[in-house]
């Protein structure tokens, strides 16, 4: 699975980074960056939680 971030939707709430700081980074301007392009199987549940926790739905998982 891969993660996509829509930086135009991101409002910098930082929920994703709080849950998974090794995968998501929110900069000083409130824009999210995905730090990896592949999600390991053992991280999938945590990544799904981070994606679902985004209040503006700026993150998604895809194959």
From TrEMBL:
<comment type="function">
    <text>Ferredoxins are iron-sulfur proteins that transfer electrons in a wide variety of metabolic reactions.</text>
</comment>
<keyword id="KW-0813">Transport</keyword>
<keyword id="KW-0249">Electron transport</keyword>
<keyword id="KW-0408">Iron</keyword>
<protein>
    <recommendedName>
        <fullName>Ferredoxin</fullName>
    </recommendedName>
</protein>
<dbReference type="InterPro" id="IPR051269">
    <property type="entry name" value="Fe-S_cluster_ET"/>
</dbReference>
<keyword id="KW-0411">Iron-sulfur</keyword>
<dbReference type="Pfam" id="PF13459">
    <property type="entry name" value="Fer4_15"/>
</dbReference>
<dbReference type="InterPro" id="IPR001080">
    <property type="entry name" value="3Fe4S_ferredoxin"/>
</dbReference>
<keyword id="KW-0479">Metal-binding</keyword>
<keyword id="KW-0003">3Fe-4S</keyword>
């Amino acid at each position: 699975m891969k993660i996509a971030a829509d930086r135009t939707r991101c409002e910098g709430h930082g929920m994703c980074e709080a849950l998974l700081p090794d995968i998501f980074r929110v900069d000083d301007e409130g824009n999210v960056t995905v730090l990896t392009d592949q999600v390991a199987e053992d991280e999938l549940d945590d990544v799904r939680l981070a994606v679902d926790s985004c209040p503006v739905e700026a993150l998604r998982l895809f194959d």
